[in-house]
């Protein structure tokens, strides 16, 4: 299907008012246009419930698609009792809603990686330098199959996705350690070493001191067949635009704005409304 416009939008984080305002700015028409979301649909904005409902409805209409972010997976983990609701997250209304199970069943079946067009690939946090995009797509499918499996399978997986220590990737890594490493690369990564070893504590901007031997994952220059569109790193404020990578988390929930990247020409449109929670 051909569309008038396609836009990739950074982390919504439940910023429902800013999201609705951005759609007006884009003159979004679900019958002609398509939205792609970089994950973290929910968390610290003022209305995660209606944000999730709206995105689900658009996806089911064929007017949108999303990948999963770390806050989305955490929401699923809270739903299944594998994690506790974080005090800073404003997602409790989702669990009190009549359609909670329907929303979360839909959410867990969303992909980790998607191809918005023939020139780009969309993930939440990034793709590490030691993975090709083709390999990343294969690894994404592995994690998706676990998240989308039976509830028994899901309940075994979720408690094993969390660790304060980064797992070192190698060809023989397997089991829950493998799934956790895959999830961390796609949904938590900011800094890494050239071999892919992750660092979880740094979340500041690029002008801040970084741990020795670690760089932002996108600064390791490796051949890429597609431009990687990503969110997650709010401190970048969407200002990273490289031939192989484009940041799209504008940090709306932190007092900035939502960003929409138009696929046809790379133009970035910002919301004029901020999150009331900021």
From TrEMBL:
Domain of life: Bacteria
Transmembrane region(s): none
A Pfam family matched in the record: Metallophos
UniProt keyword annotations, A-Z: Hydrolase
Occurrences of domain Calcineurin-like phosphoesterase (ranges): 8-168
EC number assigned by the record: 3.6.1.41
Aminoacyl-tRNA synthetase keyword on record: no
Catalytic activity: P(1),P(4)-bis(5'-adenosyl) tetraphosphate + H2O = 2 ADP + 2 H(+)
Family designation: Belongs to the Ap4A hydrolase family.
Function: Hydrolyzes diadenosine 5',5'''-P1,P4-tetraphosphate to yield ADP.
Protein name: bis(5'-nucleosyl)-tetraphosphatase (symmetrical)
Organism this protein belongs to: Psychrobacter pocilloporae
């Amino acid at each position: 299907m051909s569309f008038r416009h396609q836009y990739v939008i950074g982390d919504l984080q439940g910023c429902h008012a800013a999201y609705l305002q951005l759609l007006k700015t884009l003159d979004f028409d679900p019958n002609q246009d398509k939205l792609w979301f970089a994950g973290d649909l929910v968390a610290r904005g003022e209305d995660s419930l209606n944000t999730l409902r709206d995105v689900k409805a658009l996806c089911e209409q064929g007017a949108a698609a999303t990948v999963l972010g770390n806050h989305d997976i955490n929401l699923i983990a809270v739903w299944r009792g594998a994690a506790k609701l974080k005090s800073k997250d404003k997602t409790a209304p989702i669990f009190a809603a009549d359609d909670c199970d329907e929303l979360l069943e839909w959410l867990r079946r969303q992909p980790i990686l998607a191809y918005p067009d023939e020139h780009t690939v969309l993930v939440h946090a990034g793709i590490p330098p030691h993975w090709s995009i083709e390999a990343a797509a294969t690894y994404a499918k592995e994690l998706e199959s676990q998240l989308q499996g039976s509830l028994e399978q899901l309940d075994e997986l979720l408690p094993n996705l969390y660790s304060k220590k980064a797992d070192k990737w190698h060809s023989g890594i397997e089991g829950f350690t493998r799934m956790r490493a895959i999830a961390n690369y796609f949904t938590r990564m900011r800094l890494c070493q050239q071999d892919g070893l992750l660092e979880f504590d740094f979340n500041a901007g690029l002008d801040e001191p970084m741990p020795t031997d670690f760089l932002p994952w996108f600064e390791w220059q490796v051949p890429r067949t597609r431009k990687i569109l990503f969110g997650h790193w709010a401190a970048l404020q969407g200002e990273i635009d490289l031939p192989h990578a484009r940041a799209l988390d504008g940090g709306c929930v932190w007092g900035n704005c939502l960003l929409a990247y138009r696929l046809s020409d790379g133009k970035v449109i910002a919301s004029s409304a901020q999150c009331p929670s900021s």
